[in-house]
Design goal:
This protein has helices spanning about 5-20, 300-310, 335-345, and strands at about 40, 45-50, 60-65, 70-80, 85-90, 105-110, 110-115, 120-130, 140-150, 160-165, 175-180, 185, 190, 190-195, 210, 215-220, 225-230, 235-240, 245-250, 250-255, 260-270, 275, 280-285. The protein is mostly beta strands and about 350 residues long. The chain has 3 domains: about 20-195, Immunoglobulin-like; about 210-285, Immunoglobulin-like (Sandwich), CATH 2.60.40; about 300-345, no CATH class. A hairpin with a 4-residue loop joins strand 7 (about 110-115) and strand 8. The longest helix has 16 residues, at about 5-20. The protein is rod-shaped and about 125 Å long.
Length: about 350
């Protein structure tokens, strides 16, 4: 039989896990010194890389205080620019009370989240002693953690302010309570910043590779222009024989090509404005070419067989390679190519 106490403990642990803020991390020691009387945010700057966050991403900040007189409590209004973030939860940094007031009997309250004006929303929170007469000794300590989530991700660098509403006089909303006379202590307040950091600029041009035509001789005047681009392009074009660029949206066809040598280059511009350029491809068009007429004298004779024999056994890249001798277009001059040329011996225009 299962132990009910074990199940009860497991249920409590599960509930605590679900309730606790998933991003709750508050500073145990301040990272910067502040003279009394002071109120500040830790960390003073939160940096969010927009490439690694998404909508709903959570982060925490911690409010800290330093007081040179005995302290009987505190109140804060924390204002934040609401265009990109929203405060969702807040709590004390100690066990049922702030770490700042940990050794004093206090009256806890719940944090409130309210609109402030067209630009800012605010968090209201505080704590006061429980009337036992004890006071918090002068010094510093953490007051509260505040959890935010990201509601909007900017495309450019942005700074979002976290500011304490700390006007002096009757309108003051952020203060410490002097434990000696219950007066409100005016504070030096220090704002925090949430910085959205955009990704570094894309300075890498796209890679463009032409797959057709090849560096070879064609006996037709219409040839496919095929290519690949390794990223999304905002513009693509090509230049044939160093003429003006022709805009295209994808693979195209080169038509009415004149006999002779040609050069083609493809360009592509990515979404960041970088333009990549393919390696040029050089090819030849011979529409009047007679297969087997390797010397171009319009007939097939022993000279052509001799030229083919010199290329026998070669392939592309070999110093003896002759693409005109590769009649079956398999990239290799074989005995079958020589047979094809010999079979046409004595013919011509």
């Amino acid at each position: 039989m299962k132990n009910p106490n074990v199940l009860r403990i497991f249920s409590i642990l599960l509930l605590v896990t679900l309730i606790l803020p998933t991003s709750l991390v508050y500073a145990l020691t301040p990272t910067q010194a502040h003279d009394a009387h002071a109120l500040w945010i830790e960390p003073a700057q939160v940096e969010l890389n927009v490439e690694s966050i998404s909508f709903g991403y959570k982060f925490n900040v911690t409010a800290w205080a330093n007081c040179s007189v005995p302290c009987g409590g505190w109140q804060l209004w924390l204002l934040y620019e609401k265009a990109y973030i929203n405060a969702t939860r807040a709590g004390y940094t100690g066990d049922g009370k702030s770490e700042f007031m940990q050794n004093v009997s206090t009256i806890p309250v719940s944090a409130s989240f309210k609109p402030h004006n067209a630009t800012f929303d605010r968090v209201e929170f505080g704590e006061s002693w429980g009337g036992s007469g004890d006071k918090r000794s002068p010094g510093y300590g953490s007051l509260a953690w505040i959890e935010f989530n990201v509601t909007n991700i900017p495309l450019t660098a942005q700074e979002v302010a976290l500011e304490f509403y700390a006007y002096t006089g009757a309108t003051r909303k952020t203060y410490l309570i002097n434990g000696l006379d219950s007066s409100k202590v005016d504070l030096n307040v220090y704002r925090g910043l949430v910085k959205f950091i955009p990704p570094p600029p894309d300075l890498t041009p796209p890679e463009v590779k032409i797959t057709s035509p090849l560096n070879k001789t064609y006996t037709i005047a219409t040839i496919w222009l095929n290519f690949t681009v390794n990223e999304t392009a905002s513009w693509i074009g090509y230049s044939l024989d160093d003429q003006a660029n022709v805009t295209i949206t994808g693979n195209a066809t080169l038509t009415s090509l004149a006999e002779g040598s040609h050069r083609v280059v493809v360009y592509a511009t990515d979404l960041s404005g970088n333009t990549g350029v393919s390696d040029p491809v050089y090819f030849t068009v011979l529409t009047s070419f007679i297969p087997g007429d390797l010397d171009g004298d319009k007939d097939i004779d022993i000279d052509d067989i001799y030229i083919a024999a010199l290329a026998f056994g070669s392939s592309e890249g070999h110093p003896r390679w002759n693409m005109l001798a590769d009649l079956d277009n398999d990239g290799y001059v074989s005995i079958f190519d020589l047979y094809l040329i010999a079979s046409k011996f004595g013919t011509g225009s």
